[in-house]
């Protein structure tokens, strides 16, 4: 269910990704007007949020002018034609600097362009530049010692979530309509939850990782941060599919995810795993989560409580994989330039070198059996699992700054507790806004499904958004 066009005086930047694309296709708005509306938001509020690293203003306006000219000439617009986007600064575009949020790659210029970017280009999207992120995508909060911390647009004293911090904060601030993020332990879903937008981690291998900076070979995922589940469905349709440049990418057929959004949840069975996901959860989070379950029930879903004791092992083995593989990827730089890492990241990488090899092999070997066990416990009799995306209220930047105070480690590491399991298991999961806590910060609802069941996951998220308006709320910048 689309929103009406902005009223008099409202900004075109308020439109969602699909609303922009559809309005452009119908000839109701020019691409240049969409880009200028977003550029105006960045110019007025960009410094307060610190989501943007590299703004390609002239290139974006040239691309918009070309799109307007092509449409005026009768060319058929692509499914994302005219839509302004920016992307996490770890997706390589040939000839453009990609810092990966680090000092080490501050001047790195790749030769090749990421497959995800090429597919978005082919769909007509307008790339306006690059976004702030956690250094080498390795923290869940949005801290960055080299480019400055990204800030939550709802309150700049609070975390934006990471590692796709600029992607989540920028979509929430209406700086652009959509952004690529990456998700190895929750790095799409966390900023989506903390900033009040929609973020999708597809099934492992659903989207090509070619041209994206690696963090963990076994857990990296490519996906979008957007405003709505419908946006995510269209975005995934364009970026998903096998890529010869990434031999690990899946050959599963890519369905029309957007066509499956019918709002009907009758017969849909949703499991709530009270073990792990709700342990120690803050009261405002639980309240918003329970209200979200009621909204899903009202759409026809049946909700049941289950136990999934495998999750403790899932979390432990997932941590082993990401730490060992991250340490391997950074081995040369850690030998040659250890002082160029933030202190907390250096400590994390050194920890990876201390994990015995047989622990890593065991973590790989247990992945399949633990996936089968979790499916048996939670998904054999259910279609989806529902959890809060974050167990706690949104934390402040100060109380999760582990470089300033190592005592903050426990709070820092607790942030991705509910998102990490789905990376190790390789399952698709989406986070959608489902309310606000008592401090006025967003709360997220996470929905996960079986491998390659993104259509089912997105259908439930879209049905929820048809009856709620949390995804329409904008921060008061």
From TrEMBL:
PROSITE patterns linked: AMIDASES
Pfam families tied to this protein: Amidase (PF01425)
Superkingdom of this protein's organism: Bacteria
Amidase domain span: 34-458
Protein name per the record: Asp-tRNA(Asn)/Glu-tRNA(Gln) amidotransferase GatCAB subunit A
UniProt-listed PANTHER family: AMIDASE AMID-RELATED, TRANSAMIDASE
InterPro entries: Amidase, Amidase_CS, Amidase_dom, AS_sf
């Amino acid at each position: 269910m689309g929103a009406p066009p902005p009223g008099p005086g409202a900004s075109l930047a308020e439109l969602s990704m699909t609303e922009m694309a559809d309005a452009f296709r119908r000839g109701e708005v020019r691409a240049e007007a969409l880009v200028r509306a977003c550029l105006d938001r960045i110019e007025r509020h960009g410094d307060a949020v610190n989501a943007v690293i590299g703004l390609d203003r002239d290139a974006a306006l040239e691309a918009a002018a070309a799109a307007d000219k092509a449409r005026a000439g009768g060319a058929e617009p692509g499914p994302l034609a005219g839509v302004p986007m920016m992307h996490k600064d770890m997706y390589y575009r040939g000839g453009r600097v990609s810092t990966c949020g680090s000092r080490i790659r501050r001047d790195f210029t790749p030769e090749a362009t990421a497959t995800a970017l090429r597919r978005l280009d082919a769909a007509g999207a307008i790339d306006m530049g690059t976004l702030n992120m956690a250094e080498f995508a390795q923290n869940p909060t949005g801290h960055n010692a080299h480019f400055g911390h990204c800030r939550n647009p709802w309150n700049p004293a609070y975390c934006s979530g990471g590692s796709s911090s600029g992607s989540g904060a920028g979509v929430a601030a209406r700086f652009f309509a959509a952004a690529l993020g990456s998700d190895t332990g929750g790095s799409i879903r966390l900023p989506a939850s903390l900033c009040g937008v929609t973020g999708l981690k597809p099934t492992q291998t659903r989207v090509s990782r070619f041209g994206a900076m690696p963090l963990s070979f076994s857990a990296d995922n490519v996906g979008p941060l957007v405003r709505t589940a419908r946006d995510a469905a269209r975005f995934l349709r364009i970026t998903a599919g096998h890529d010869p440049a990434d031999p690990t990418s899946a050959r599963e057929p890519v369905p029309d995810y957007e066509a499956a959004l019918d709002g009907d949840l009758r017969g849909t069975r949703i499991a709530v795993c009270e073990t792990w996901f709700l342990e120690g959860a803050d009261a405002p989070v639980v309240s918003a989560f329970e209200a979200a379950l009621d909204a899903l029930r009202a759409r026809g879903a049946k909700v049941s409580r289950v136990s999934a004791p495998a999750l403790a092992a899932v979390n432990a083995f997932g941590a082993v994989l990401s730490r060992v593989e991250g340490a391997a990827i950074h081995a040369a730089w850690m030998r040659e330039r250890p002082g160029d890492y933030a202190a907390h990241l250096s400590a994390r990488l050194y920890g990876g070198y201390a994990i015995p090899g047989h622990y890593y092999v065991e973590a790989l070997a247990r992945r399949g059996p633990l996936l089968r066990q979790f499916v048996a416990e939670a998904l054999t009799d259910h279609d989806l699992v529902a959890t809060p995306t974050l167990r706690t209220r949104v934390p402040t930047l100060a109380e999760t700054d582990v470089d300033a105070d190592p005592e903050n480690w426990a709070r820092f590491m607790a942030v991705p507790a509910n998102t990490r399991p789905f990376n190790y298991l390789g399952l698709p999961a989406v986070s959608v806004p489902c309310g606000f806590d008592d401090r006025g910060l967003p709360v997220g609802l996470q929905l996960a499904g079986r491998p390659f069941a993104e259509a089912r996951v997105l259908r439930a998220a879209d049905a929820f958004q048809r009856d709620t308006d949390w995804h329409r709320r904008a921060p008061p910048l």
